[in-house]
Amino acid sequence: MNTATADNSMSSARGTALHRQIFLVLRDEISRGLFAGGALPGEEQLCERFGVSRITVRRALSDLAAQGLVERRHGRGTFVRGEAGASWRPAPSLSVIDSLRKTATETVVRVLEVVQTAPPADVARLLELTPGEKAVHALRVRSNRDGLPAMLTEAWVPVAIGRRATEAALKKRALYEILMDQGVKFGRVVQEISAAVTDPQRAALLQTEVGGPLLKLVRLMHDLEDRPVLHLTAHMVAERASILMEIPAATVNTLTAGRIVLDEPKTAK
After folding, report:
1. According to the model, what pLDDT value does residue 103 have?
2. Which residues pair with 158 in a beta bridge?
3. Exposed (0-12), middle (13-18) or buried (19+): which is 49, by Cβ within 10 Å?
4. In whole angstroms, what is the distance from residue 23 CA to residue 233 CA?
5. How far apart are CA 94 and CA 103, in angstroms?
6. Which of 228, 227, 205, 98 minimizes the C-alpha distance to 152?
7. How much is the pLDDT for 257?
8. In a 3-state reduction of DSSP, which class is residue 6?
9. What is the Cα–Cα distance from 152 to 130, expressed in whole angstroms?
10. Nearest to residue 108, comparing CAs of 62, 197, 171?
């Protein structure tokens, strides 16, 4: 994509303030390590590049500084903070359990709620529960190494295998470990990855802005007898988390590698 074309198109984009658009562009470029030596272009250069006023550029730079991505030095300019450069990405892993273990050990969990209640109809159907049958519902927030909330998870487990998943237990151990201790052996996993917009409730829990982008992962885990045992929905702040996958060569041409599902257009009735 031509940079000039992309930059010029920002002024015509609807629904997002200009300073926010500039903030998003610069944040992406910072994460990719595009500023050699760590110095951002001067305010005048940014005004010329984006075709906006100096006050708009200053608001974008202030937002970057507020998130700890840059440091503004009086009389010298704006510089990328050392830890905000090109993001480090871990090696892919084929193991879902390894991924769960890594998430549990590298984050701090806050348990918001653990109750036994009837799940929504779509979740009950996927877990193959009878109408009105209860499941264990666990709502948790996981924070990254900087203490910022990165992920909000909502889990549903059939009561028969989820009784030990209490609030006290989940403060000490990950849910998958509790289930495995009860003899659950995980088998097939079906998951869907999509995008979502932060609503006020999630924004408060994740300490991010309303209307911001979220990654949404819905995962349905089965046991070795192909019985659904865990329904998990995770909402992740886009700039604090990512989803890493690896597809073995043997499964590239199969559904195991996943597929893109396009939503059907809504027709007026």
Report:
1. 72
2. 135
3. middle
4. 29
5. 14
6. 205
7. 64
8. helix
9. 27
10. 171
So what's the pLDDT on residue 112?
A: 96
Quick check: 212 and 198 in contact, CB under 8 A?
Answer: yes
Reported as half-sphere exposure (CB side, CA atoms, 13 A), residue 15 has a value of 2
Q: What is the DSSP string of 83-122?
A: GGSSPP-PPP-S-HHHHHHHHHHHSEEEEEEEEEEPPPHH
Of residues 231, 101, 218, the one with CA closest to residue 162: 231
Question: Residue 9 has what pLDDT?
Answer: 47
pLDDT given at position 146:
76
Contact partners, residue 47, CB within 8 Å, separation at least 6: 53, 54, 56, 57
Q: Helix H segments across 51-187?
A: 54-66, 96-106, 121-126, 159-162, 167-172, 175-181
The CA-CA-CA angle for residues 143, 155, 101, to 5°, reads 55
Per run of 10 residues, the mean pLDDT along the chain (length 269 residues) is: 44 68 88 83 94 93 87 89 56 60 78 96 95 95 87 95 93 91 91 92 92 92 96 91 76 70 65
Residue 57 backbone dihedrals phi, psi, to 5 degrees: -65, -40
pLDDT attached to residue 196? 93
90 phi and psi, to 5 degrees?
-70, 165
- pLDDT at residue 15 in the model: 57
Q: Please name the residues in contact with 214: beta carbons below 8 A apart, sequence gap of 6 or more.
A: 195, 196, 197, 198, 202, 206, 235, 236, 237, 238
Residue with tokens 């009784």: 163
pLDDT at 249: 75
Which token pair is 3? Answer: 């940079």
Single pTM value for the model: 0.70
